[in-house]
Write a structure and sequence with these properties.
It comes from Diplogelasinospora grovesii. This is Ubiquitin ligase. By secondary structure, this protein is mainly alpha-helical. Among the domains are: about 60 residues, no CATH class; about 170 residues, Up-down Bundle (5 helical Cullin repeat like), CATH 1.20.1310.10; about 180 residues, Cullin, Chain C, Domain 2 (Ribosomal Protein S5, domain 2); about 80 residues, Winged helix-like DNA-binding domain superfamily/Winged helix DNA-binding domain (Arc Repressor Mutant, subunit A, Orthogonal Bundle), CATH 1.10.10. It has 33 helices and eleven strands. The chain is elongated.
Length: about 850
């Protein structure tokens, strides 16, 4: 024991010693401060002190080393007994608090005692784990667990032992916590904490230690139980992939946690799991790529990827495992079998069926591997073939534009909902639409020599402007998403009828933009506009002017100049008729039978119409003559050409079931009034033959037959044909159908005027071709006049460039027109050069 010294001073009477040496001086008590000065003497057995006077206190207890060793040994025995009880699952004889104090006493003895205690604990735990209670039971279970499901049994056994050891280790850590804090943590570089020690010992016992068969020393060592643990975990994954009810999610999740704690997850489990998953993906893809169609294969791959991802998330697999598993699945299921996913025929069937869900799944699958752009090839192939089939279908020509718009609508929805508005697919769509619309091979089936699409787009717009939205199929109308997008962009909601009609006109214009030959569209649009204006068949004047403005914005004012003039002529005609009626009123001349309205049109702006000969009723002829005379007197030098084939009127007809007003063409009215001449005659005499009507009307045969067919063979039959039939022959006779009845008072029968005949259609195409020839020749002359000399290739290229706005010109046609200009001495050819002749 250390010695302590101190100086002691006291106040006494007289001179007193500065230091009291208990070995030599008498122990005295002085009176001063203690009530007296009487000295008491006592002898001391302590050694005499020499030198400076100081108080020295020494430990007088004799050393008891043997007793101390016995004390610490008794503590260890108590701790060892407690460990035995803990390992056996029993309660300790000593309270945990007392055991904790024993560990603390040993640790306070010094580092040597702490190190010895730590080593004893380590040996005791290792003996327990490698003995019969833990590793022995695992080995016994591993030996008996053979056949299917055996690895799962071993996995359960190991996990059960681990959970039991974890509970035991928790108690040990509490009892030995002072050792952890005071010694093991200070030496953490060379020693493990109790928790780390318990984990590493269990890991070595299960995943490292191999054991030989004690019954037969010649047999090779058996693999450690950890190998079967890994096999059991992969077996559980296999159950889950097959949908086997033997899959135990809790067991798998706890096993993953155990492996991660042991530090063998990344080294042992992950490589094996990924290798077995690789084989599974290969087998899965090979089997389903053969037996499944594209749609089923896509769905199967999508479900598999979702399940694999969910398994990684739910059972806490590492993110690196998930990433490697995902990449491997993408490579095998998508990239390796991309030829199946991108098969033109299979993709075309999904697109034709408007299977947005499957196409979205396909796009998302390909996007996972970054090859979604490759889908544009089958996408464009389908559009080109589907569009060419529609354009070349002569049997369904009237439905061409509706079918093209339905195709475009379906493809736009596909881009919006399946391809996430990918611009590459939008670009491919536009390119393919432009290709098949302007492909001369597709137009050649119509034998028109010009674009059939331009004609049909003009007729589609005519149908919209005459009949409105009711003429469209429901598939072309806007859906909820379209309306939301329109409102979001600040446009009128497509739920409004006018806004929806405007939207449908825009869709038609989108097709119009693809057309290179705008002249065909212009010719037919002008003809249809003229009919609508002259016959008052426009559904909305606002829509008409709106469409005109769209065309002006798209093609420029030169394109719409004549169309705008047509609207001006209509306004001028109204003023002219108002002036004429004032003139008639001022002269006192009136006609009670006829209310004449004349549209004065400028020949340059309006389409060209043939002159059809017809014998008008005398009353009508008189009114026309009067107006003609008035107009010529008012506008000196002008001449009127009457186009009776564009005229229409309202006639009253008396039937047995009442009077009806019939809205008919001029030719229909001329035929109907002929029956007034046989009115009142006996039934067998109130008949007019085809020949009689032909002579009386003076109409050409084909025109008369069309007219009679519309009156006697259509849906509304105000005349009866004998014999009955759909066609009119030269021997037919006609009577008034007195039994005719219709609930409406005014009935339209003049639809025949709105329908274009085959001859008129061909004539329009021929006129467009002729105009193209003249325009091509004019372009050649302009170019040669400015360039003077050019090679053939240069001249052809320049002509194509200048005339492309009006339509694609065939180089063979350009060559033909060059020859015509050479014949007319506009240019001459010398060798390979053309020279302009002034």
């Amino acid at each position: 024991m250390p010695t302590y010294s101190a100086s002691v001073s006291a106040k006494v009477q007289g001179k007193r010693p500065e230091v009291i040496d208990l070995t030599t001086h008498d122990l005295a008590m002085h009176n001063s401060g203690f009530g007296g000065s009487r000295r008491q003497l006592a002898t001391s057995t302590l050694q005499p002190h020499k030198g400076a006077k100081k108080l020295v206190i020494k430990n007088l207890r004799a050393p008891t080393t043997a007793r101390v060793d016995q004390y610490y040994e008794r503590i260890w025995q108590e701790l060892d007994a407690a460990l035995t009880a803990i390992f056996s699952g029993h309660s300790t004889q000593q309270p945990w608090e007392l055991l904790y104090r024993g560990v603390e006493d040993i640790c306070r003895r010094g580092e040597t005692a702490s190190a010895d205690l730590a080593e004893r604990l380590r040996s005791r735990c290792e003996a327990h784990l490698t003995g019969d209670q833990v590793l022995g039971r695992i080995r016994a279970g591993s030996t008996s667990a053979t056949g299917p499901g055996g690895d799962g049994t071993v996995l359960r056994s190991v996990l059960g032992q681990w959970k039991r050891w974890s509970e035991q280790l928790l108690i040990i850590r509490w009892i030995y916590s002072f050792l952890d804090r005071s010694f093991l943590l200070k030496n953490s570089k060379t020693l493990q904490t109790i928790n780390d020690l318990g984990i590493s010992q269990f890991r070595r016992a299960v995943f490292v230690t191999s054991h030989s068969n004690r019954d037969d020393g010649d047999k090779p060592a058996v693999a450690p139980p950890g190998t079967r643990v890994l096999a059991g975990m992969c077996e559980l994954v296999g159950y889950d992939r097959r949908g086997d009810e033997r899959f135990d999610g809790a067991l798998f999740k706890d096993s993953v946690t155990m492996l991660r704690l042991f530090g063998v997850y990344g080294k042992s489990f992950e490589p094996r799991f990924l290798a077995e998953s690789h084989e599974y993906f290969l087998e899965f893809a090979e089997e389903r790529s053969v037996s499944y169609g594209l749609k089923d294969y896509i769905n199967a791959c999508e479900r598999l990827l979702v399940r694999e991802s969910e398994r990684c998330d739910v059972y806490n697999l590492d993110s690196t495992t998930k990433r490697q598993l995902r990449d491997d699945a993408h490579h095998i299921l998508i990239e390796k079998y991309s030829s199946k996913l991108l098969d033109n025929g299979s993709v075309a069937r999904l697109l034709a069926a408007n299977d947005v869900e499957s196409m979205k799944a396909l796009y998302d699958l390909l996007k996972l591997s970054g090859i979604q752009k490759k889908l544009t090839d089958p996408w464009e192939d389908y559009i080109g073939k589907a569009g060419a089939e529609i354009v070349g279908d002569t049997a369904r020509g009237d439905d061409m534009v509706v079918r093209l718009l339905e195709l475009r609508r379906a493809l736009d929805i596909m881009i919006r909902d399946a391809f996430s508005k990918d611009e590459d697919f939008t670009y491919g769509l536009r390119e393919e639409f432009g290709n098949f619309i302007n492909d001369q091979k597709n137009s050649s089936s119509w034998n028109t020599g010009t674009s059939k699409v331009g004609e049909m787009v003009a007729k589609h717009i005519d149908m919209l402007l005459r009949g409105g939205l009711k003429t469209l199929p429901a598939t072309l109308l806007s859906d909820v998403k379209d309306r939301a997008a329109a409102e979001k962009s600040g446009l009128a909601s497509t739920g409004d009828e006018d806004a929806e009609l405007d939207r449908q006109l825009d869709h038609a214009l989108e097709l119009f933009r693809f057309i290179e030959g705008k002249d065909v569209f212009e010719a037919f649009y002008k003809k249809d506009l003229a009919r609508r204006l002259l016959m008052g068949r426009s559904a909305s004047q606002d829509a008409e002017r709106n469409m005109l403005q769209k065309l002006k914005s798209e093609c420029g004012s030169s394109f719409t100049h004549n169309l705008e003039q047509m609207f001006k002529d209509q306004e001028l005609a109204k003023d002219e008729m108002a002036s004429y009626r004032d003139f008639v009123s001022s002269t006192g001349r009136t006609s009670k039978a006829i209310d004449l309205t004349v549209n004065i049109l400028s020949a340059a702006a309006w389409p060209t119409y043939p002159d059809v000969r017809v014998h008008l009723p005398q009353e009508v002829l008189e009114e026309i003559t009067a107006f003609d005379s008035y107009y010529k007197n008012k506008h000196t030098g002008r001449r009127l050409t009457w186009k009776h084939n564009l005229a229409h009127c309202v006639v009253k007809a008396r039937f047995d079931k009442g009077v009806r007003e019939l809205l008919v063409s001029a030719f229909q009215a001329v035929v109907l009034v002929l029956f007034n001449e046989v009115e009142g005659k006996p039934k067998d005499e109130a008949v007019l033959s085809y020949e009689q009507i032909l002579q009386s009307t003076g109409l050409p045969g084909p025109e008369l037959k069309r007219t009679l067919q519309s009156l006697a063979c259509g849906k509304i039959r105000v005349l009866a044909k004998h014999p009955k039939g759909k066609d009119v022959s030269d021997t037919d006779t006609f009577t008034v159908n007195r039994a005719f009845y219709d609930p409406k008072v005014r009935i339209k029968i003049n639809q025949i005027q709105l329908k274009e005949t085959k001859e008129e259609n061909q004539e329009t195409h021929k006129r467009v071709q002729a105009d193209r020839q003249f325009e091509t020749q004019a372009a050649i002359v302009r170019i040669m006049k400015s360039r003077k000399t050019m090679t053939h290739q240069q001249l052809v290229a320049e002509v194509i460039n200048q005339t492309k706005a009006r339509g694609a010109v065939d180089p063979a046609d350009i060559k033909l027109n060059i020859e015509k200009l050479i014949d007319k001495d506009y240019i001459e050819r010398e060798g390979g050069m053309y020279t302009y002749l002034a």
